[in-house]
Structures are given as structure tokens and as C-alpha cells.
């Protein structure tokens, strides 16, 4: 999330036309077209964050700037050449790293929260004794995971929470 993503069409020679057909998870479909004979592009119903990124001809690619959850969906590139039509389909999935929050609850138990990640994060504790996990799903597709460390005689002991996520792992420690 927040980065740029580049999707590449199949590299072919003698390209006459390239079309990106985009079906995002949120909102309606959009298309980007390119005609080689006129060296002309056309965009229909696409956001400003999606545009052509022409690299070495004839390999036009699609660039999505500031990728967000709304960009998730199917992206199909059609390349028309003298040899035939070629397709490449991508399914874009956006990873949202969770915010790691570690605090002591009202009973003095270390509590670890992996807030608003996509997909849901996994939480574990260093020196794990006994813990409970709760998940809360949000409307935007993110998930908050709350892990509570409930070991006896943990007071004053430095306890570390580890959050595992495809966008990167994080850890913090606390003494309650």
C-alpha cells in the first residue's frame, strides 16, 4: 500500500494495439488503449493514479501510483500483433502492514495489537505461557488482531510481542 506497482504486457514485436482491461474490487471497470499506427493512447473511466509507463517499445506497461486497497482486482493486458492476440492477466492483491501497539491492560497484562493489517497478522509472545487472540474485521478489508499475554508472575518481567505479516515482521517488548 502506498507504493507504485508496474504490470508488464507480454513482450511482442509488430504490435498494432495494446489494451489494459481493469476490473477493480471497488468501483467500475476501466480501460487504457494504445494504437501503434497513430501512436495514440486513450483512457476510459480510470483514476489518475493509473497510466501508461512506456519503457522500451513495444513493451508498454501499466503503472499504478500510490497503490491502495481500492486498486485490488483483475488486470488483463491484450496485445494485438500480426502473429495474433496475446493476453496476460494479473490479480492485484494489496498488502497493508499492521500498526504494532503494545501496552499493559487494566489488570497489568501485556497486550499486543496488530491494528488494521491486510491480511490478518499472526501474534506470538517470546517466553509464551498463556495468551488469547481476538480478531476484528474492518469494512475496508483490513483486520485488527489483539493478543493478550496472561501468564502468572509476569509482573515486571520484560515480555516481547512478535507480529508476523507478509509485509514484514515487527517486535516490541514491555514490562508491566
From TrEMBL:
It is found in: Membrane. This is MOR1A protein. Transmembrane segments: none annotated. Residues 1-93, 111-175 form the Ig-like domain. It comes from the Eukaryota. It is a single-pass membrane protein. Pfam families: C2-set_2, V-set. One of its GO terms (molecular function) is signaling receptor activity. One of its GO terms (cellular component) is external side of plasma membrane. Keywords: Disulfide bond, Glycoprotein, Membrane, Receptor, Transmembrane, Transmembrane helix. InterPro entries: CD200R, CD80_C2-set, Ig-like_dom, Ig-like_dom_sf, Ig-like_fold, Ig_V-set. The keyword Glycoprotein applies. Belongs to the CD200R family. One of its GO terms (biological process) is regulation of neuroinflammatory response. It comes from Rhynochetos jubatus (kagu).
